[in-house]
Structures are given as structure tokens and as C-alpha cells.
Amino acid sequence: MRAGTIGERGGQIVAGTSAVGPEAPATGAPEPGEPRPSRGRLAAWAGGALAAAFVVGGTWWVTAVHPGGHLSPPEDGTVTVCATRAGGPADGDVAFGAVLEPTSDVELTGLTLVGATNVVVDATVVPVVHGSDGGYTTVGAMHWPLSSADRAGLTLEWSSERDLAGAHLTAGVTEDVVLRVHADDAAAQASWSAIRVTYRTAGAHWAQTFHQGLIIPAGTATCFTDDDTEQQ
Q1: Which CATH number fits domain 68-231: 2.60.40.10, 3.40.50.620, 3.40.1790.10, 3.40.50.720?
Q2: Average pLDDT over the chain, rounded to whole?
Q3: Which of 40, 111, 137, 181 suits a disulfide with 94, CB 3.0-4.6 Å?
């Protein structure tokens, strides 16, 4: 993400049978009177072996998860956001977003958080509505649940929101991944270092990692000062 087979090892039979008398040296030639394999049989064996190799290779390609880049242009570096619950309940959840710009039609299959500590998420996707200048406003680090004013301030087509797993994305249509972030223990810090989204396209399974991390201090503690961390 196997088992061994019983066979010959070192020229000796090891499958539970024994040979009587001394072993004859292996010459690779048929014994006297033994028929030689025909060229047709050799060709058939070779063809069968080649077909089996193609089947194994094809199965691996379809079932393995390959590094992909269909969901968004390559990122430049890593962004980590610190989101405090200040102004909200100490055990409240946080919203977080990640924008997808698919270059192919894809079916999303799941999302995992890389390096996650004390955190679980629910994920949905929502189409992005572009303004006349091409700009848009998507979910940042915000208190959850999003208020009516929060939703109105985001240029998202909320009526088309659906679960991330199983969602179909169309090439060229920008979508926002909306994460509801919940800390298992509100008295401890919650965090992750990146977001990994898996999907299917072109007859194979792929995964793309977004280097967008999140840190939520314990309770309503304020974010620490770090030049590499954005404060929200």
C-alpha cells in the first residue's frame, strides 16, 4: 500500500517431497526421449508472461495513489495561520478554507490533515463566484458556525455546497474547500501542517498536498508571535 509461494530453492525441492539418490546436475537440456518444447509453445508462454505483466502494471496504476497536481497550480512555500477563539467560546469550532482550481474534471475522494494534533474536521466544497474584476472572497480562519453576515460577505454559491467526499469538480470552475475544525480537547492546542486531498481523474487515483497549516491556541489564548505564522 505477499505471501510467499512454495517452490524450488537452490536447485532443491522444498515443498515437502524428497528425491531418492544423488541429484543430477542441471543442464537446461531435455532428458533423452523427452520432447523438446515447440517454438509455438515458447511463444505462448512468453505472450502469457507479458500479458500478466501488463495486468499487474495496469492494476497497480488504477489502485495506487499517485502524486497529482490537477487541483491547483503549484504553491510557493508553506503558509501557516494562527486562529484564536478570542471573541468566541473557548470550546468553539473554527472555519478554514482552501481554494481549488481544477485543470481537469475530477471526483474528490477524501481529505486528510498532515501532522494533525488534537483536531478533526468536516469538509464541504462550494463553488466560487467571481466578480466582474475576476476577484473573489473565500473562507479564511473564522468562528464557526458562520453567521449570516459572514456568509453574505463571501462570494460563494452556498446553494451548491456539498460534501467533499464524492463531489465532482469541473475543469476551470473554482471551488472553496470549507473546513469545520473541531478540537477534541479545547484546553489544548490544535494544529496541522498541510492538507492532503485525494481524487480520481484520467482513470487513476491521485493526491495533492496543499501546504497550508493551521494552529488554534488552547481555549481563548492569543496567538504567539512568529514571523512565519499569519495571525487571524
Answers
A1: 2.60.40.10
A2: 81
A3: 181
Question: Given this model, what pLDDT does residue 75 score?
Answer: 74
- Continuous segment of H or E residues that includes residue 192: strand 190-192
pLDDT for residue 191: 96
CA dihedral 48, 51, 57, 58 (to 10 degrees): -140
User: What pLDDT band is residue 225 in, cutting at 50, 70 and 90?
Assistant: low
**CA triple 67-69-83, angle to 5 deg:** 95
Q: What are phi and psi of 175, to 5 degrees?
A: -130, 150
pTM: 0.71
The cell for 194 is: 498541510
Q: What angle do CA 123, 129, 131 make, to 5 degrees?
A: 145
Q: What are 185's three cell numbers?
A: 480537547
Dist. CA 200–CA 203, nearest whole Å: 7
Q: Where are the domains of the chain?
A: 36-67, 68-231
